[in-house]
Known about the structure:
alpha/beta; Spore Coat Polysaccharide Biosynthesis Protein SpsA, Chain A; 39% helix; globular
Amino acid sequence: xxxxxxxxxxxxxxxxxxxxxxxxALESFLMQETNFEFEILVGEDCSTDATKSVIAEYALRYPxxxxxxAHESNIGAIRNQVDVIRKARGxxxxxxxxxxxxxxxxxxxxxxxxxxxxPGYVICCHHSKVINENDDIVYIKAQPVSMEFDxxxxxxxxxxxxxxxxxxxxxxxxxxxxxxxxWYFETYGTDTLFxxxxxxxTGKKIFVMPDVMxxxxxxxxxxxxxxxxxxxxxxMISDFNLTIKNFKYSGLMKKELLKIYIRQYFLFDLRNWKIxxxxxxxxxxx
Length: 286
């Protein structure tokens, strides 16, 4: 879908069984104060609770601003994300899952202003608070500072304060093409691979603003944040292998990636009798 010059930002939200959280997310989108038009697209993945009806009520109250994209069957978070992003008409795309929310009414304006003035960056993020199910603060950086990351940084795992709820990205074909990559649908830490793909395909960088403008929520229904630590580690190893198979890197970077595998994942593979997997990973990096 082509962009609409009248719409500067497409807020793209995916949600599943977020009945108790989705209204908070939508309200945080609606409170944005901008000098440009934006749209709100919500991909609802056939929830088993009342998430869809909450969004439908908001869409009726804000016609032309909030658009409910309801799936008749559950297609999974990645396909939901790809579908919503494909429908985005804005020059920029701002991402936020339905269980997270924004806390600064100037968030979209600040990020657009930065990206408009700095063509060398494809993504603009900002600092976030991490909260639990009771809205208690679990983490917030004591002294937020500006940061930037390039392709090699993210490849080596440097991506501090680039959570999906903070991310604004240029709406480019080179970015959205990730939805045509079969391996993308095998990822677990999908947002990291999404960022890496955007950097690889555009040659641009990520900028992190020092402002704290979003809340990332840890809860038992979270896709990633609250899963068993052993399962999380297995998924991280899977993503690591997808990364080294599908992205380019120099001989020097290959050595750094091998160090990361040995330091973070090798012993885990051995302890879980994944010896052949370990050998395959090492051979791919030699």
